[in-house]
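Protocol step 4 of 6: structure prediction from sequence.
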Amino acid sequence: ATPLQAVAAPGSPRLLWQGPQQVRTGQPVTVLLRGQGAAAWHELALQLEFDPAAVEILDLRPGALFDPSDGRGSLLRNDGPAPGQLAVTLSRPADSAAAPGAAADPTPQDLLVVTLRARAAAGSSTQLLLRRADAPGSQPQAAPLPEPHVLRLVP
């Protein structure tokens, strides 16, 4: 099992990474950004940072929370001002509200699916880092960002 990473008070909203701790050079892997207490969130704007010499982002997809079965969720991706920076905005309609009490649900929800491939030489490591993007209405303002997700590159 892959560990969940987070730093937050119990019961409070939080973001966490879930994915492998190591990856073989050239092998695609998937890392999930998950949100605990996220069921009522409708928009999330973040900046994903990574070392483009170490990893290549193959695909970004909305997780289940922002990709509802009715197809009304969206993901907007923009390259950042420097290589290795991606601005990501996930959204879904306000009328796709969760059931009462869902915001306090401790079950983590999938928010973002990141598929990447290691490029760098084995024996090194790299990390995926999130920063908060300034976007009106983006949630969760109160949720702390997760620690960087560190990937060790192996032969």
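Step 5 (inspection) to follow. The mean pLDDT is 80.
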